Amino acid sequence: QVQLVESGGGLVQAGGSLRLSCAASGRTAGIHGMGWFRQAPGKERDFVAATRWSGVSTAYADSVKGRFTISRDNAKNTVYLQMNSLKPEDTAVYYCAHTPLQLAAQYLVTPNKYDTWGQGTQVTVSS
Fold first, then answer.
1. For 99-115, what is each residue's pLDDT tens digit?
2. Considering only CA atoms, which of 61, 52, 48, 35 is closest in space to residue 114?
């Protein structure tokens, strides 16, 4: 079993930046991919970005392309989400998630592909 702990959320003005981190522990040798999702109040959990744990396969939601970057440090078992040019509509609780599936990142865009979730970190963007 993998455990995930997110950090880095907070309050930022529109146009600002934040970097979220997600540290994995436990059976990290079995990690094949990680993703970020977000959920605003009263809304469903939406895909943000995903990465394979090896290679260069990444995927992004259209709403964040060009503004957000997902990256990883395999040695630290940590995945990051660099968020630039933040908008008020980016306000949500952000969750990282682990997948044991060996799929390209473009196929890791739905919550049912993931088996473990972090506790979430709040991101609030003020206008």
1. 999 999 999 999 999 99
2. 35
